Amino acid sequence: MSKSLALVVFLVAVVSGCSTVSPGGYFWGNYSYTYHDLIKNPSTESRAAHQKSLRNIITESQEKSLRVPPGIHAELGNLLAFDNQTDAAVTEFSKEVKLYPESTIFIERLLSGVSKGSEEDEI
Amino acid sequence: MKFKLIVVAAFTLFIAGCAEVETKMQAYPKMYSPSEKPVSMLVVPVVNKTTAADAGDLINSTLTVPFADNGYYVLPVSIVSDIFQREGIVEGSQILGLPASVFKNNFGADSVLYITINKWDTNYVVLAANVTVGMSYILVSTADNSVLWSYDQQIVVDTGGQSSGFILLDIVQTAINTAITDYIPIARQVNATAVATLPYGKYHPQVGQDGDMEVVLKSAREKALDQSD
Question: In this complex, how many residue pairs, one in chain A and one in chain B, have their CB atoms less than 8 Å apart?
């Protein structure tokens, strides 16, 4: 059983180019791991680790000439806004809209939160 | 004797007939209609019906990758769930009653994805260990509340290690593996299996070309809808 699983894992790794680039053509780095840590244990450390992971995804994607995956610039912007780095946050939000125009309404909502300096949004 | 053989043959045919397979186009026609096909997707926090408390976080943290890889713009799950939390919503079940149009107006999402974890059973059987996971997925249009895609599946993932050749060592090893199993690849595997039936979206290189793929089990497509009531 575990031998066949190992074979499947091996084949998947080979097919996906040692899992650096996903089947959809994105580089995700450690995204799921650092995000999972952030949910399980929200702290300055886990936020910093996730921010590092997001920056790594952006850098690696650029180096590999890949499109940065959906939501990565927005998430980075959100973490920067949390740290009151408003200008840097707005820059990241704008990059998300430029790359993915269908995020416009969502990002405008986030931007209004940043400029108000309040988190009081209503669904 | 011959009669018995005929009964067996008939029974086999009956079983085979049950496992009706559809193409993606037959199963999900709205996903191929230019006016109805969604580009963006908002994922509601999962509804966890199991006693495995960690399962929800595991699935939530591994969802974006497969759905984005399939060509969709997935609204950032971390930000969306923060917004929900500020509104006092931590579980998807609190959202089920809302009309999907709420997500169009407030988030600009074309579709909403509802996910339920129905089963998460860890089995430890001396020399082997596995986890049985049952999930259902329903993608709803925010334009008219209609179902765009649905799938229900149960998979068993092996979590045990390699055999050392010594039974006693194996027993100890299996116990250790079960305790420290890295569940993220397992959660990924679960999502990937269901997502294989989802028609490709705008950002996938083969968008619109996968309609003939015969990969949708009709029973699995329908089962997801039964459970939603």
Answer: 107
DSSP assignment of B186-219 equals HHHHHHHHHHTTSPP-TTSTTTTS-TT-EEEEHH
pLDDT at B160: 64
Domain boundaries, chain B: 2-227
SS3 B138: strand
Q: Is the pLDDT of residue A120 over 60?
A: no
CB hemisphere CA count around B47 (13 angstroms): 16
Tokens 């300055």 — which residue? A44
Cβ–Cβ of B68/A38 closer than 8 Å?
Answer: no
More confident residue, A113 or B156: B156
Q: Where are the domains of chain A?
A: 30-116
Chain A residues whose CB is inside 8 A of the B160 CB are 1-2
- Cα separation values, B151 from A28, A41, A97, B158, B178, Å: 25, 31, 31, 22, 29
Tokens 């919503």 belong to residue: B89
CATH number of B2-227: 3.40.50.10610
Residue with tokens 């003939």: B212
ipTM score of complex? 0.81
Please tell me the predicted confidence (pLDDT) of residue B229: 47
Q: Which long-range contacts (CB under 8 A, 24 or more apart) does B138-141 make?
A: B138/B113, B138/B114, B138/B224, B138/B225, B138/B228, B139/B38, B139/B41, B139/B111, B139/B112, B139/B113, B139/B114, B139/B198, B140/B100, B140/B111, B140/B112, B140/B113, B140/B114, B141/B30, B141/B36, B141/B38, B141/B100, B141/B110, B141/B111
- Whole-angstrom Cα distance, residue B187 to residue B62? 7
The CA distance from A35 to the nearest CA of chain B, in Å, is 6
Q: Closest-CA residue in chain A for B187?
A: A32
